[in-house]
Design goal:
Layout lengths: L13 E4 L4 E4 L5 H14 L4 E5 L5 H4 L11 E5 L2 H15 L1 H4 L13 E3 L2 E5 L4 E6 L9 E5 L4 E9 L10 H11 L6 E6 L4 E2 L4 H20 L4 H7 L11 H16 L5
Length: 266
């Protein structure tokens, strides 16, 4: 969980370097982390940072943006990201205030000026990266980044390893996107949370198993006429041994999934 002690440093972030420029993929959960990331980047290369790509709107991926705001830097995101940041940005800053304390100093909500509706290819100088926008899944603004040279996929929070997946968009959409993601021609993946780097598409199996079990349990509960409170306590419980932070998020996922699935046709 994000805290003042860890400066919001809980998500995987990265960079892709071309012959001419650098692209940053997410910036971390605070300006403190963002500046540390920038310093580490500068130890590797003096090349200009051309793009800062945010995979979605959650604070642990965007609160470091201000560390990279400079002339010539283009912020990039899903077409829905500006709307999500406008709707949630102030709430994120206030809601994380207690947990983050002074670690929130300097955080600014920076919306993308370049947005992706389907696919966009960016050239860093002899190195092309493919950005793809997805339907509502983890959130309503998920974006992946594929480095075509190495076959490395930055999946953002469309992939969780060890950290239980979080449904802040659509449970059914998450499952559909996972199926489509598996068909991407990548060789390895950087998950939004969890160990680096995992083989592709095998890395999707544990997440898909969790989402599938949660969906089945919720449909069964709805068919029995169970309340949302009961479903939140019971759905997905067989997956508990497989995940960290299960108790922090599974009930929330079940509640969101229940609201979505109860409107399915019988």
């Amino acid at each position: 969980m994000m805290s003042q002690a860890n400066s919001g440093d809980i998500a995987n972030i990265g960079l892709i370097e071309g012959a001419d420029a650098v692209a940053v993929v997410d910036t971390g959960g605070s300006v403190i982390e963002g500046r540390e990331f920038l310093a580490a980047l500068r130890e590797r290369t003096p090349k200009p940072i051309r793009y800062v790509i945010n995979t979605h709107a959650h604070p642990d991926h965007i609160f470091g943006n201000a560390a990279f705001a400079a002339a010539g830097v283009v912020f990039v995101g899903h077409k829905n990201l500006p709307r999500a940041l406008a709707a949630r940005g102030a709430f994120y800053l206030s809601s994380f205030g207690a947990a983050m304390g002074a670690a929130l100093d300097g955080v600014k909500i920076i919306a993308p000026t370049l947005t992706v509706e389907d696919k966009t290819t960016l050239d860093l100088g002899g190195r092309e990266i493919v950005l793809q926008a997805w339907r509502t899944a983890h959130t309503d603004g998920d974006l992946t980044v594929l480095d075509t040279r190495t076959g490395t996929l930055f999946a953002g929070d469309l992939l969780f390893l060890q950290h239980v997946p979080i449904v802040d968009g659509s449970l059914l959409g998450f499952l559909e996107v996972a199926e489509r993601l598996a068909k991407l021609e990548a060789s390895r993946v950087v998950p939004g949370h969890g160990p680096l780097v995992a083989p592709w598409p095998l890395a999707l199996q544990t997440e898909t198993a969790y989402l599938t079990r949660l969906t089945r349990d919720l449909r069964a509960a709805i068919a029995k006429g169970a309340s949302v409170e009961t479903a939140a306590r019971t759905a997905g419980q067989s997956e508990r041994p497989n995940w960290r932070l299960f108790d922090d998020y599974n009930g929330r996922n079940a509640t969101a999934g229940f609201a979505e699935l109860e409107w399915e046709s019988p």
